[in-house]
Amino acid sequence: MINIIGLGYIGLPTALMLSTHGIDVIGTDCNKNLVDQLKSGAISFKEDGVSELLDEALMAGIDFSTDYQVTDTYIISVPTPYDKFTKKIDVTYVLSAVSDVLKVAPKGAVIVIESTVSPGTIDKFIRPKIESLGLMIGDDVKLVHAPERIIPGNMIYELVHNNRTIGSDDLIVGEEIKKLYSSFCQGEIVVTDIKTAEMTKVVENTFRAVNIAYANELAKICRYDNMDVYEIIKICNMHPRVNILQPGPGVGGHCISVDPWFLVGDYPSLSKLTEVAMKTNDSMPEYVLNRIYEIMKENGMTDVGRVGLYGLTYKENVDDTRESPTLQILESQKRHLGTGLKVYDPFVEREIVDNQFYNFNDFLNAVDLVVIMVKHNEIIDNMEMLKDKLILDCHNVCTLPGIYHI
Q1: What start and end residues bound the annotated signal peptide (predicted)?
Q2: How would you class 104 by CB atoms within 10 Å of its CB: exposed for 0-12, middle for 13-18, buried for 19 or more?
Q3: Confidence bin at 340 (pLDDT 50/70/90)
Q4: Which candidate, 331, 341, 346, places its Cα nearest to that of 377?
Q5: pLDDT value at residue 47
Q6: C-alpha to C-alpha distance for 395 and 406, rounded to whole angstroms
Q7: Is 179 in a helix, a strand, or coil?
């Protein structure tokens, strides 16, 4: 039996996949309401196919509990935020989960850390914690790192088809965990050492962050000198060895906006390029806010309450608002002018900000300037509804004439 600790965006789909592929699974989370909700057959976030997968898993015998189980294998999938001042990883949740597992784990149990961590985190924090309890790693407890590699909006497909990395002190143990994940994963699974596995996950997300930052920097340069960044990128990408990404209003989610800071925090003198890239991406919400003020001034608008931000999530067609650029804009506006900007997102049904709308028509009737922060299918399919509005398109998806870009 596998005990999966943490039933969020990563832990829950992993638990469901294992359960529906013949593995006995109990999911554990400290949130009793979440546990009760899952037992009743309801998921806590919107994701195509996950609700159906939960139904299958319940039929297959999956169970959920607030209690840690006595078993031979644990998968820990809890958040790993970073300290916004030091940029170092905050391992509080992982350490807490490991500590609770050790209270019930039998001798020889395998603890798999699936949470993304910075290189050396297991050496610096997890091993000392285990050893402080008088336990011998490799005998009393076996450690494995198996970083996730999926994205909200396409979770089920990526769980099945993406390649994965397993890091282990003991390659035999690593192969056993590889076999476990192979119950559902059709991608290639590489077994290596723990620190290499830690580093590869952070490097993957840093690579993406740096490339996004280059596109965002290009957007600023082109805006400054009155050039069309999208036309320039399109032409440059005709080169067979060039693939510039698209600029945007900022970077959100729990991967690209967080993980690269782990490198900056741990290797401050060696990660200057990463640091500049992250600061470039982090500057985009403030940059978009300044563009809003410029457009308002140009069109004689004085009431910020007639400006609407379309989209609260960090990416299209999901309900995930973690590190959302829109939330960053609202926080920045609050510091400068207090509240006022209107907000709407078809995927966010709970109230999380001031001036939040829950109907597209009501939102459009309340604003004169629409800022496309997220390219949900809804707005792309209904672009004609914006024809009488001023539009700041942060994703170059609007086909109407006379729009503004970042």
Answers
A1: none
A2: middle
A3: confident
A4: 346
A5: 84
A6: 8
A7: helix
Instruction: Name the percent of the chain in helix, strand, coil, to the closest 5.
Output: 45, 15, 45
The tokens for 115 are 């949470």
* Claim to verify: residue 184 and residue 204 sit in the same structural domain: no
Claim: this prediction has a pTM higher than 0.85: yes
Task: Please return the burial class of 4, using the count of CB atoms within 10 Å of its CB with bins 0-12, 13-18 and 19+.
Answer: buried
Report how many domains make up the chain. 3
Looking at the structure, tell me whether residues 58 and 147 fall in a common domain.
yes
* Residues with a known catalytic role: 201, 255
Give 67-79 pLDDT, tens digit per residue. 999 999 999 999 9
In terms of domains, do 269 and 307 share one? no
In terms of residue numbers, what domain contains 306? 283-406
Which runs of consecutive H residues, i.e. helices, occur in 306-405? Answer: 325-337, 360-365, 377-381
% of the chain exceeding 70 in pLDDT: 99
CA distance linking residue 222 with residue 144, whole number of Å: 47
